[in-house]
Design brief:
globular; 296 residues; 6 helices; 19 strands; 5-stranded mixed β-sheet; Fumarylacetoacetate hydrolase, domain 2; alpha+beta
């Protein structure tokens, strides 16, 4: 099933995608969780039963009349993977990693489909990275690869937007990866039972309609299950955590000359079996120093 967050009539709630409509889960049962991370914790049997009831009796709206939001607005953790496709490793000139290269993106970077990726005044070197994202559904630790699927609730699309000059200033990359609006997620979460094998999906990134990235998730150096095993060795994974699994070749930084995102651009990332994440690009309005701090 496809689980989404949507806003309609000034209220944001959870829904189930059915064709070109969204089924409002809030009208089905007051006992169902109102937050996505809690919904994902439910067993597959409970979710399927709720979905079947919703399709029979819950109210629904055309998708074109609602606003889709980020499926998880503030993930407990956003764990991202660098250099996870051989062609991308080659285009960067880096050495092929022996273990996954992990960095964090801050949860305040998350936006949903249709929201603008902002180019900040501090840099013009803003780049796109189309990626498959894993969404965790069970609290877990030290998960072996052959059981990793049990803790995955589903999959979504991520744009690991990167401010390249800030990324390159420090070896941790976090400052260049975590600007506000630089983690679009969506358009929804496809539950794990819908994807027989997440390592056979085609991925295409377009900027203004031009194909920039085209690959298959089978080209990952470290697959989704290896990543769950690796990360959970060190720390607990929680429902709602997002693992963005790395980007293939074709990023703007590797083009000659480098091609950065600019206000007025549009970025589309389509992953087979999941859907399209589409975001416009705009200039961030400059606020005076301290304006966000409020009165004291």
């Amino acid at each position: 099933m496809k689980l989404a967050r949507f806003t309609d009539g000034g209220r944001t709630r959870l829904g189930l995608i059915e064709g070109d409509e969204i089924v409002d889960l809030s009208t089905l049962s007051p006992s169902l969780p109102a937050e996505m991370a809690s919904l994902l914790e439910l067993s597959a049997d409970v979710l399927i039963a709720a979905a079947e009831r919703a399709l029979r009796s819950a109210s629904r709206r055309p998708l074109v009349l609602v606003r889709l939001e980020a499926p998880i607005p503030r993930p407990p953790k956003i764990l991202a993977v660098g250099l996870n496709y051989a062609d991308h490793v080659h285009e960067t000139g880096a050495a092929r990693p022996a273990v996954p290269v992990i960095f964090n993106k801050q949860s305040t970077a998350v936006i949903g489909p249709g929201s603008a990726i902002l180019v900040p005044p501090e840099s013009a070197a803003v780049d796109y990275e189309g990626e498959l994202a894993v969404v965790i559904g069970r609290r877990c630790r030290r998960v072996p690869r052959d059981r990793a699927r049990e803790v995955i609730a589903g999959f979504t699309v991520c744009n690991d937007v990167t401010v390249r000059d800030w990324q390159r200033r420090t070896p941790t990359m976090t400052m260049g990866k975590s600007w506000d609006t630089h983690c679009p997620l969506g358009p929804w979460i496809v539950t794990a039972d819908e994807l027989a094998d997440p390592q056979t999906l085609d991925l295409v990134t377009r900027v203004n309609g031009e194909i920039r990235q085209q690959a298959s998730t089978r080209e990952m150096l470290f697959d989704c299950y290896v990543l769950v095993e690796h990360l959970s060795t060190a720390f607990t994974l929680e429902p709602g955590d997002v693992i963005s699994t790395g980007t293939p070749a074709g990023v703007g930084a590797a083009r000659t000359p480098p091609t950065w995102l600019a206000p007025g651009d549009s970025v589309s990332i389509v992953i087979e079996g999941i859907g399209e994440l589409l975001n416009p690009v705009a200039a961030e309005s400059v606020k005076t120093a301290g304006q966000h701090l409020g009165d004291r």
